[in-house]
Amino acid sequence: MSESLSPPNIVPLEQILPDEPLLMMGAGPVPIPQKVAAANSIVINHLGDTMNRAIEQVKDMSRYVFQTRSSHVMGVSGPGSAAMEMAIANLVMPGSRVLCITNGYFSQRLAEMSRRVRAEPTILEMPKNQGVDVELVERELQRGHYDVVTMVQGETSNTVYNRHLEQIAQLAKRYGCLIIVDAVCTLSTMPLEMDNWQVDAIITGGQKGLSSIPGVSLLAFSEEAWVRKIANRQDLPYHWCLDAQLADKFWNQKSYHYTAPVSGILALHEALRLVCEETLPNRFRRHLRCSEALQAGLEAMGLDLLIEKQHRLNSVIGIIVPDHVSADAVRADMSCVHKVEISGAFGLNILRIGQMGEQSRAHNLFRTLHAFGSSMRKCGAKLDLPAGMAELERVLSN
Ligand SMILES: *Cc1c(COP(=O)(O)O)cnc(C)c1O
C-alpha cells in the first residue's frame, strides 16, 4: 500500500501572471474587449430561454459575418482545429478524394484530418511563400477526380495570403466538388462572402479575427453541403462530439447535444455584436489601414518582410530576422521590458506580428512597433527606429 497523495504546493495565480497584462500582438490569441471579457465570466443554464435568445442572435450575427443565408451555422466547443475537424468529419467520407491545396502548416492540417477520417487526400503544394496558383489548381482538378477541395484563406504560419479564393471556389463548383475554407485568422478582417463565392464550409476560431476567447469556434455549412453530405448520410461520422446532425439539435432545435460552453458563447456573442456594430466594410478598412501602416513602418526601419507584397497576408505579418539576431531573444526582451508579446514561427527565422481584431488599433501599433524596433536593436539588428515610427504615423494619418 502506498500513501495517498497530499495537496501539491501551489502559488496563487497572481504570482504566476505578470504584474501588468502583456499586450498580445502575436498570431493569436489576441486582446479581447472588456464586454467580451465580462460576458466570459457568466454561467447560465445552457438550455434555458436566456441561452436560446443568445443563440438565436449568435446565429444571426454569424450569418452576417460569414455573409450567408444558410441555416446551418453552428458553434463548436473547442479550438479552431475542432471546427476544422468538424467540417472534415461531416463533409469528407471514408474513401473521398480530397484535393488539399497547401501553402503552410494549417492547410496541411486539413490534409492530415482528411487522412484520419480514412479519406484519400492529395496534397497540391503551392510554390514556397506563394499564394494559391489558380492554373495549378485547375490542371489538378482536370486530371484527378475529386469530391472535396480544402484550403485556407490566410496561412497564419508563414503569412501567405490566398487572394484567389473566389476563383478557386468557382473552379471547385465547376468540377463538382465541395469546398472547405479555413478562415480562422481572416474572418471579419477581410472580405469573404460565403454565399456569393459559393463556399460550402467556412471555419473560424474565436481568438483571432473575432477578438473573442480561445476555445469556442464557429462554422457554417452551405445548404448544398448539408443536403448532399450531412442530411442524407448513411454511415455515422467518426466523431460523436463533432457530428453536425447532433450539433444541429442544440443550434437549431433547442435541445441537448453536449453541455454548451455557455460563457464562451456569451463572449462570442459580444465579439460578434461588436463586429456588427462596426460593420464589415469599416472593419475591413480598419484592418487594411493598420496592417499597411505597420508594414510600411517595419520596412522604413530597414527590415524585410518574408512575403512579397502580392502574396502577403495582412492579418499576420512575417518579418525576417537578420542572421546574427536571435528571434527568441527579441521576443523575450519585448515581453520583459515592453510588456508586448509577439510570435515566432514554426521553425522559420521570422517573427510574426498579428493584425487581427483589437490588435488593429493605432495605439497598439505605436507601442508594438516601438517595442519591436527597440528590442531588435538591443539584440544586434541595425535599424532606424525613428524612421519607422515616423512612417507609421504618416501612413496612419493619411
Ligand atoms: C490559428 C489557426 C488555426 C488553428 O486554430 P486553433 O484554435 O489553434 O486550433 C487554424 N487555421 C488557421 C489559419 C489559424 O490561423
From TrEMBL:
Q: Which GO terms describe its molecular function?
A: alanine-glyoxylate transaminase activity; L-serine-pyruvate transaminase activity
The UniProt record lists the Aminotransferase class V domain at 43-329
Which Pfam families does the record match to this protein?
Aminotran_5
The entry marks the following residues as binding substrate, namely R352
Xref: InterPro entries:
Aminotrans_V_dom (IPR000192), Aminotrans_V_PyrdxlP_BS (IPR020578), PyrdxlP-dep_Trfase (IPR015424), PyrdxlP-dep_Trfase_major (IPR015421), PyrdxlP-dep_Trfase_small (IPR015422), SP_NH2Trfase/AEP_transaminase (IPR024169)
Q: Which residues form a coiled coil?
A: none
Domain of life from the UniProt record: Bacteria
- Which residues belong to the signal peptide in this entry? none
Needed cofactors, names only, are: pyridoxal 5'-phosphate
Q: What is this protein called?
A: Aspartate aminotransferase
- Organism placement in taxonomy: Bacteria, Pseudomonadati, Pseudomonadota, Gammaproteobacteria, Thiotrichales
